[in-house]
Design brief:
alpha/beta, amino-acid biosynthesis, lyase, 3-isopropylmalate dehydratase, AconitaseA/IPMdHydase_ssu_swvl
């Protein structure tokens, strides 16, 4: 089975939106009452609804950030329930990457499955990025092949999950890549079982110990 080839993404280039709030959970990203769709679309219009309604000056209410592609945010982003809809909502807003000091584990897994790039970076770098983009969004260029990002004022390296990095830069989904190696995986498993049998039961297999 060949992988389902998707457009390879090696570079993300676009405007930043600063949202330096810690512990943004998935219910804040997409409230439960909006989880009514049967597809992956229709969630973006409800993303961060509570924050938008609570503060007219909230970053995503500002017209200059409407086309941002990279979200700069606080620690423990995506905590809370495991809803995959949170990733879909963020992507439907137009974000291709999020930079934060840390991400919740389940959110990270859902992001990788859907091709949303998560970059863990120090609090200092995140705060610098947020400050640079506080009033006017700046362009950031993220090189996924060489794990390097830069703005006009700031350069930094980062690390991605190696398997995710390979898949997104080659245009593979994780599932399709694994399925394409199914035969080799089955063969490897058989060989491993045979080796273990030989170690544990050499006499029964016709070899003296």
């Amino acid at each position: 089975m060949k992988p389902n080839i998707k457009p390879a993404i090696t570079t993300i280039k676009g405007l930043c939106a600063p949202m330096m709030i810690n512990d943004i959970d998935t219910d804040i990203i997409i409230p439960a009452q909006h989880l009514t769709q049967t597809s992956k679309t229709g969630y973006g219009q409800h993303a961060f609804a509570r924050l938008k309604q609570a503060d007219v000056d909230f970053v995503l209410n500002q017209p200059q950030y409407q086309n941002a592609k990279v979200l700069i945010t606080g620690d423990n982003f995506g905590c809370g329930s495991s809803r995959e809809h949170a990733v879909w909502a963020i992507q439907e807003l137009g974000f291709a990457a999020i930079i934060a000091p840390s991400f919740a584990d389940i959110f990270s897994n859902n992001a990788r499955k859907n091709g949303l790039v998560l970059i863990e970076q120090s609090i200092d770098i995140c705060q610098q990025l947020a400050e640079l983009n506080k009033f006017t969004p700046q362009t950031i260029e993220i090189d996924l092949l060489y794990s390097h990002a830069k703005t006009a004022q700031l350069h930094f390296d980062f690390m991605l999950n190696p398997f995710f990095q390979y898949c997104i830069t080659q245009g593979h989904s994780e599932l399709d890549y694994l399925m394409s190696h199914q035969a080799a995986t089955v063969q490897h498993k058989k060989q491993s079982i045979n080796r273990q049998l030989f170690i544990n039961y050499p006499q029964q297999l016709g070899t003296s110990s």
